[in-house]
């Protein structure tokens, strides 16, 4: 996957880049890559890809942050969306001390802080304290492990349909992976740390943030497209999970043109 890199911050301890990764239309596994240096990758778009390291495979979605060691050997398989955007921190102390990637979910509040930190750095600020704080938070975050096939398929289905007005119901997700709703809900929470509803909710908030970053000003339209009954409903969920209002997020995240 070819990359376009824009340097946002260069300090004594670490660098921060905005990275656009482009697929060539193929959904096959890439040739093995070797990580040149330790890096932490924060998502700022919902484009998905699969990450293979050793015998494990992870779905990397719009909520997933990954910390790589230097010399790590890995492969990527892009999803349907052609371009993935990330904030990449290089040179910072790794999240974990082992050689395998540390794969973690970001909370909606943390994801918003990634977006806000990028906007701040793009505006010319030389204060990367928020990025350093986010890296620090990952050290205590729950690590994701390779999931069982039913849970992995359920997660993929939810991620693929998160920005659709009429996504599948939780019962339909369970049926799609040939599990009872009770068994699916219990297994999903045990393996990911989130309920099916929480995971879909977080994905939809990530979709709302991305649309704000892309300059979408129509809050009612965003709410409708993401399956909320009204703008006020989305606003209440956003405020509870992110900690700021939709209007505040629109002002912060839509303050400059997209890279």
List keywords for this structure.
alpha+beta; Arc Repressor Mutant, subunit A; 259 residues; single chain; Jelly Rolls; four-stranded antiparallel sheet
Structure characterization notes:
The protein has helices at residues 108-122, 129-138, 149-161, 170-176, 181-192, 196-213, 219-225, 231-242, 246-253, and strands at residues 3-10, 15-22, 33-34, 39-43, 49-53, 56-60, 64-68, 73-78, 83-90, 102-105. The strands form 2 sheets. The chain has a 6-stranded antiparallel sheet, with helices on one face. Strands 3-8-5-6 form a 4-stranded antiparallel sheet. The protein starts with a strand and ends in a 6-residue tail after the last helix. The protein is an alpha+beta fold and 259 residues long. The protein folds into 2 domains: 3-138, Jelly Rolls (Sandwich), CATH 2.60.120; 149-253, Homeodomain-like (Arc Repressor Mutant, subunit A), CATH 1.10.10. A hairpin with a 2-residue loop joins strand 5 (49-53) and strand 6.
